[in-house]
Amino acid sequence: MTHPDSSSLPDSSSLVDAAQRLSEARAALADACRAVERDPAGVTLVAVSKTQPAEALIPALEAGQRVFGENRVQEAATKWPALRERFPDIQLRLIGPLQTNKVREAVALFDAIDSVDRPRLAEALAAEMARQGRILPVLIQVNTGEEPQKAGIPPREADDFLRQARETWGLRVEGLMCVPPVDEEPAPHFALLREIARRHDLPVLSMGMSADFPVAITFGATHVRLGTALFGSRPKP
């Protein structure tokens, strides 16, 4: 089976396509895993639902998708509380940059924070989790391409930051996340993230999106983040 090509998928306004897209994406993910002799059960599909209205997510939810990624706290707060009432086993992951003034709301709303990228944020998250009595798993976002416009800790600082996040602030660091530069081959970036994770015995690697998730799977991705492959081109915010 060929991998889903987001450019050839139907327009996202056609909600009946969502369940079919999900089925195709799951099959492509399974194919990519089998190609490198990995168990597909070891890779979690994170449906990237940013900018998608709540009604666009219902078909995927009804088809059994439960893990979703959102970029913005405020947007997530407008749609997920009501969806959780209908689908209480949803796992909601924050995959976008988090401002410290949104930490309280983020800790209350999300089940995991995948974009921890600086000491001030790590400290604020630890304090707020203690205040709310919620111990959320977190991922450290590494800016593997060292792009100035992109969030993430530089690779050269990742080892020290990881130790500090665990030992100083007591965060439950489960793994790493990255978004490679769009104009570069992703493989070296995935390899770099895998090596950092190995040094720290971290089991979770969130890497790979609609265009490159098969490559990420070959480098050990445990979470792949698919948006356009599931929902088509995103509506304008």
What does the model show?
The chain has 237 residues and is an alpha/beta fold. The chain contains 9 helices and 8 strands. The chain has an 8-stranded parallel sheet. Helix 1 (17-35) packs across helix 2 and helix 4 packs across helix 5 (119-132). The longest helix is centred in the first third of the chain and has 19 residues, at 17-35. The model is unreliable at 1-14 (pLDDT under 50).
How much is the average pLDDT? 91
How large, in whole angstroms, is the Cα Rg? Answer: 17 Å
End-to-end Cα distance: 33 Å
Low-confidence stretches: 1-14
Largest sheet: spatial strand order: 7-6-5-4-3-2-1-8
Structure characteristics:
237 residues; alpha/beta; eight-stranded parallel sheet; 8 strands; 15% strand; globular; disordered N terminus
Brief rundown of the structure:
By secondary structure, the chain is α/β, with parallel strands linked by helices. Helix content is 42%, strand content 15%. The chain is built from nine helices and eight strands.
List the helices and strands and how they pair.
Blueprint: H1 17-35, E1 44-48, H2 54-62, E2 67-70, H3 73-86, E3 91-94, H4 103-109, E4 112-116, H5 119-132, E5 137-141, H6 155-167, E6 172-177, H7 187-199, E7 204-206, H8 213-218, E8 223-226, H9 228-231
Parallel strand pairs: 1-2, 1-8, 2-3, 3-4, 4-5, 5-6, 6-7
Helix pairs in contact: 1-2, 4-5
